[in-house]
Specification:
Blueprint: H1 2-6, H2 10-28, E1 32-38, H3 56-67, E2 71-77, H4 83-88, E3 94-98, E4 110-125, E5 143-146, H5 160-167, E6 169-172, H6 175-183, E7 189-193, H7 194-203, E8 211-227, H8 235-247, H9 250-255, E9 261-262
Parallel strand pairs: 1-2, 1-3, 5-6, 5-7
Antiparallel strand pairs: 3-8, 4-7, 4-8, 4-9
Length: about 270
């Protein structure tokens, strides 16, 4: 290259060098990719393996990407059963909407409280004479549960064998299937997040008079971001992005329609 440039007039050689420099600059300034694990958890994450996630995670990542140019947050499909291993082995750099109770024991991660709170409740079929006392005792009741989820009533043990033997649980990969089993009398209860029920009643109001929702909470939680140590983005940078989105109102615009609470971060 250098020898070839010597054969050119000075003005032309300078022009070639300037063009080469401008070509190389964008690659030097390219945003660092941050891979964000996504496992089906509606309404937060909706079937990411199909390649067209319509959940709240995609809205949040879009807002984070638009906010700055240093990082590009990319959704990487995983599963409830596989997500912790993917994170631990470096296949993903960031997990959002997580809790330390959900299979993270012994895993090295750093956390950022997203300042978002949700709850999980029991759902049964509405029947004459059935009231809130129906949820007081799970003994003798058949449950429909989502495979890989960690439930407080089961001490956060997601083992299918444990859930089946101790709680007469049928496990599926679909909240819709679980709800249909409840309505058809194949099981007695299922569990759903309050945010999912808000979305369900908004788009399918016919379900509201047909189901009884417990006032008893199975679990109530703050959502956290788990950041991989020594990954491409620092915990402090994730925290600052979330704070900026909270301060400018974008966080509320994304999550408030689902009755997901905006709360003070836990210390």
């Amino acid at each position: 290259m250098c020898a070839a440039l010597k054969c050119l007039p000075m003005w032309m050689a300078r022009s070639v060098l300037l063009t080469l420099g401008l070509t190389l600059i964008p690659s030097a300034w390219a945003a660092q990719e941050v891979r964000v694990g996504a496992a089906h958890f509606p309404p937060y994450i909706v079937r990411p393996e199909r390649g067209s996630d319509t959940g709240l995670l995609q809205q949040l990542l879009t807002a984070m990407n638009q906010l700055q140019n240093d990082y590009h947050f990319t959704l990487v499909p995983t599963s409830m059963a596989r997500r912790v291993r993917d994170f631990d082995q470096g296949r993903v750099d960031l997990m959002l909407f997580e809790s330390s109770n959900w299979g993270w024991k012994g895993i090295d991660y750093e956390s950022v409280d997203l300042g978002l709170a949700d709850s999980e409740v029991f759902v049964a079929k509405q029947q004459p004479g059935r009231d809130q006392s129906y949820f007081d005792d799970l003994k003798g009741k058949r449950l429909a549960l989502f495979t890989g989820y960690h439930y407080a009533f089961a001490n956060f043990n997601p083992s299918p064998a444990y859930l089946a033997s101790n709680f007469d649980a049928t496990l599926t990969y679909s909240h819709e299937s679980n709800l249909q089993m409840v309505l058809r009398g194949r099981v007695d209860m299922t569990l759903m997040t309050c945010s999912f029920l808000t979305d369900l009643f908004k788009h399918n109001p016919q379900y509201k008079p047909r189901i009884l929702v417990s006032k008893r909470l199975d679990q109530s939680y703050h959502h956290y971001a788990f950041v991989r140590p020594n990954g491409p983005i620092k915990t402090e940078e994730v925290a600052q992005l979330i704070k900026t989105l909270r301060d400018n109102g974008q966080l509320k615009a994304i999550f408030a329609p689902y009755n997901i609470e905006m709360v003070a971060g836990e210390s």
